[in-house]
Amino acid sequence: MTVKEVTDILEDLAPLPYAESFDNVGLLVGNNKTKISGILVTLDTLENVVDEAIANKCNLIVSFHPIIFGGLKKLTGKSYVERVVIKAIQNDIAIYSMHTALDNVPEGVNNKICEILGIKNPKILIPQKETVKKLTTYVPVKDADTLREALFNAGAGNIGNYSHCSFNTNGKGSYKAGEKANPTIGEIGKTHYEEETQLNVTFSKANQARIMKALFSSHPYEEVAYEVITLENTNQNIGIGMIGNLEEPINDIAFLKEVKQKMGAEGIRHSQLLGKKIQKIAVLGGSGAFAIEAAKADGADILITADIKYHEFYKAEGKMIIADIGHYESEQFTKNLLVDYLTKKIPNFAIRLSESKTNPIKYL
């Protein structure tokens, strides 16, 4: 099995186009064609993690956080980032990062938090914008069914719980083939009129490459007329954060104690307690202050996240509780999620959960 074969499996779970624009995801170090001897899954790729990979003969590290985030201009070993990259290259170890691609899918980071805390029927808290696209193309009426089915098979036409969705309008198209053309229908130098179907299908942006390949391989024309536009429609299954309910309401102090225990938090920083029962819960692994307004608008009793600043706690405004459990603590179970997923997909392969400690924050 090669690096690419493994990363293709990971991208079925978390397609890279769903990562945030500021992020750095995908294969950061290594060659796609390298044969894999073992996979080590970690939250962060530090020097001790690379050492662990070497000791266990794992030449692919699957990391949630990217070790290379900003630009690297030199590799001199002066920073921990440079030392990790140098050591990985010297030992032929590939590093692949998922980060916000995994944040933004329904089976990802925040769903794992919901699972651990017993939150039922979670939905996306902040749907990602510009994830739905529309393809419009023109095809001879007699070929429309074949092309439409090829696009459906590539993933087009899926809307929520529906599939095979399209809109079709018949009309008359025209074109004149130039001297160097090789027209499928019509003659060089003569204007040709053809009964055509205008075919419209929507698709997820993660499937665009696959959709375009199906279009060009199945369309009968030498030159394919088409356009792809981004729609304002919201895909409720793609986005960051989740919100759901406990089966039974619980006292706020009792719930925070439960969160502390289940999430392995050394402590929880929180806004003013409201003295009421907790049932509707919003979660966002990692830095989640930007989700405060969305959680309030959705009627959450509490937002569980990390990296909340002093003044951001005021934004609770007596309407909900904001609880900061720690960045590492909120995301630590992500590596368990990935190990479980990879083990199911490639059961007879060496996949290890990293035992290295990577939390940079210590408590006195």
TrEMBL record:
One Gene Ontology term of the molecular function aspect: metal ion binding
Keyword Chloroplast in annotation: no
Database matches in SUPFAM superfamilies: NIF3 (NGG1p interacting factor 3)-like
The entry's keywords: Metal-binding
Binding positions for a divalent metal cation per the UniProt entry: H65, D103, H327, E331
Keyword Metal-binding: yes
GO cellular component: cytoplasm
UniProt subunit comment: Homohexamer.
Protein family according to the UniProt entry: Belongs to the GTP cyclohydrolase I type 2/NIF3 family.
Name of the protein in its database record: GTP cyclohydrolase 1 type 2 homolog
Source organism: Zobellia amurskyensis
